[in-house]
Amino acid sequence: MSINQNVEESRIDLKLNQEQKKTLEKAAALMGMSLSSYVLSQSLAAANKDIATHETLVLSDRDRDLFLSLLENPPEPSERLKSAMQKYQDKYEK
């Protein structure tokens, strides 16, 4: 029984020049992997890193402290915000 029995497979095609292909083949061979496995593993690692970079917010200590302070002690809503909330409630909460 295959572990990937219920997994639908997809393909992608890459166009690259001979030098690029030779470089990838050499790296794959050095890692003891097939070219496809090497490209897939490296691509997924880079993709996961890019996703993490774009989904992670790093705050300085000062900004973190300010953020937490505002969560614990939120400022009073301004008149403009109160007016906007009232308009929203009048329109959507009937």
Automatic annotation (TrEMBL):
The reply on keyword Cell wall biogenesis/degradation is no
Q: Superkingdom of this entry's organism?
A: Bacteria
Is the keyword Transmembrane in the record? no
Q: Where is the composition biased (Basic and acidic residues)?
A: 77-94
| Keyword tags | Toxin-antitoxin system
Query: InterPro entries under this entry?
Result: Ribbon_hlx_hlx (IPR010985), TacA_1-like (IPR014795)
> Which segments carry the region annotation Disordered?
71-94
Name the protein family.
Belongs to the TacA antitoxin family.
Q: What is this protein called?
A: DUF1778 domain-containing protein
